[in-house]
Amino acid sequence: MFNPNAPLKGKFIVIDGADYCGKGSQHRMLGAYLLDHPLDRDNKYINVVMTREPFNTEYTKEIRQILKESKDLRNVARRLFELYVFDRELHVVSLIEPLTVESGVIVFSDRYKYSTEAYQSLQGIPLEEILKAHKEMPVPDLTLFIKVPVEERLRRKAALKDRPYDEVFEKDNEFQKKLDAQYDSLVKIHSNENIVVIDGNRPKEAVFEDIKSHVDKLLFNK
Q: Using one digit for the tens of pLDDT, what is the confidence trace for 13-22?
């Protein structure tokens, strides 16, 4: 049920970027920060739902299987595109819209439409087709792109010792090199959206300070 008298309006925040940019760590840090926000400790108005894509739908298992087992990026492009859109549509109608619009919750997602626009367009799906598929989906109130040079992202990948397997995109270094430019282009394409590029090639604490400042401005005009 819509609550027009909620003291804090719902917001939809997205964090996105190329593999190994550090968004997962920042996603977790921001969730904890929001639940104990220094400007909300007296009121405790903030409620946060941390989510991620792919979402928990009937399409997720096939997505994960393709990412894990596929060896040819182009052969799986069309199916991945379809699966991600189907999955995202359910994410929107079952969680994002009901909570942010009707319930006044801050929904904070690790990945959203921008990942499909970057990754699947590089796989060969026309960008115009991808943009059209997302035309009716909600625009985030704030999107944070974490940008890290590909050399550093590959170094981080190599340093991981406990990852059980590489996903199909992670196996292709040439593909990874193209992602930075693709995300840069999305900032221009979505110039009417509130997208902020964060320099992720720093200690995670410094990156987080930048993220906090943009989130605080969104929520409290600080």
A: 999 999 999 9
